[in-house]
């Protein structure tokens, strides 16, 4: 796959991943034609490709699926974490085939094309995953040229010249424009989405790129939810009279989003507001408390990551998607580590002593993934009055 790196496509190649190093990995393009730049990551989940592609946290990322058959159950309007895909593209092993599932409404490749997202199949995804693991997540351009003609000089320059994710505030690009109520609960076959509660504590969720299933799990836990844009001020949040504030997941570098998010979170902490943060929200809570975040070498993305809860040793199998993490060595006094990754010991949860504020690096809302950690939604909402 990697030697020689011919700039001329091998016969039949209509897709190419051009790494910032100049290396080219050829395949068959599907979805939209064109090219896009991003960071290459891999996700080990065996199900949930539609949820993964629509998760706003994947903005500016190219997802390599380690599971070889992607697209085989099609796509629908319900298993989505946002209204459009946010990953810029995906790399898969096998050609996308005719979907076979009673809920399928559209082919995966046609859905990608409709939303302007690019796929490449026929790639040795095991070798690419191994490369990311050994060398770190590379910047790259994903390109699809149905006629097999690639302007390699331009594409190589685009891959080489892209800044990378570090230092990028992407929450601003994916957040909503207006404040609005959220009323959907969990989905059930034959019933669709449940309605949220009429009564119950009011949670204001700051949308840095929120997955819909987080909001559904908050309503399921009994909260009335209002979602606000990422740059909403402390005064605007307080005017909504929240019983608690939720800090969402989201794309990009937490240290960049911190510029406007951290002052608001610090004011909320000073007002003793109960706070729950997930992923980017957890990282921002850590930054607000005085810790530091750092880019990881390869990141964590999948649906089977074991995490240990330090209070009682219990292990939760979790869904993960992050490429940055709060550095455990920088936790100041008053911030306690609550969870840790059993894969590599990275910090996976914090709680602020004497405050009603906690965060987890992983995804208790799953989607896709196991529900072991759903208790965190009950813990947050149940303590609000
Ligand atoms: N899922 C998320 O919220 C991701 C957070 C952050 N963008 C990271 O990659 O670490």
TrEMBL record:
EC number(s) recorded for this UniProt protein: 6.3.5.5
Alphabetic keyword roster: Amino-acid biosynthesis, Arginine biosynthesis, ATP-binding, Glutamine amidotransferase, Ligase, Nucleotide-binding, Pyrimidine biosynthesis
CPSase, as annotated region: 1-201
Pathway membership: Pyrimidine metabolism; UMP biosynthesis via de novo pathway; (S)-dihydroorotate from bicarbonate: step 1/3; Amino-acid biosynthesis; L-arginine biosynthesis; carbamoyl phosphate from bicarbonate: step 1/1
Catalytic function, reaction form: hydrogencarbonate + L-glutamine + 2 ATP + H2O = carbamoyl phosphate + L-glutamate + 2 ADP + phosphate + 2 H(+); L-glutamine + H2O = L-glutamate + NH4(+)
Cited PROSITE patterns: GATASE_TYPE_1
Active site residues of this protein: 279 (nucleophile), 363, 365
Binding site for L-glutamine: 57, 250, 252, 280, 283, 321, 323-324
A single MF term (Gene Ontology): carbamoyl-phosphate synthase (glutamine-hydrolyzing) activity
Sequence ranges assigned to domain Carbamoyl-phosphate synthase small subunit N-terminal in this UniProt record: 13-143
Superkingdom classification of source: Bacteria
The protein's role, per its UniProt record: Small subunit of the glutamine-dependent carbamoyl phosphate synthetase (CPSase). CPSase catalyzes the formation of carbamoyl phosphate from the ammonia moiety of glutamine, carbonate, and phosphate donated by ATP, constituting the first step of 2 biosynthetic pathways, one leading to arginine and/or urea and the other to pyrimidine nucleotides. The small subunit (glutamine amidotransferase) binds and cleaves glutamine to supply the large subunit with the substrate ammonia.
Quaternary organization: Composed of two chains; the small (or glutamine) chain promotes the hydrolysis of glutamine to ammonia, which is used by the large (or ammonia) chain to synthesize carbamoyl phosphate. Tetramer of heterodimers (alpha,beta)4.
Family recorded in the similarity comment: Belongs to the CarA family.
Protein name: Carbamoyl phosphate synthase small chain
UniProt lineage: Bacteria, Pseudomonadati, Pseudomonadota, Alphaproteobacteria, Sphingomonadales
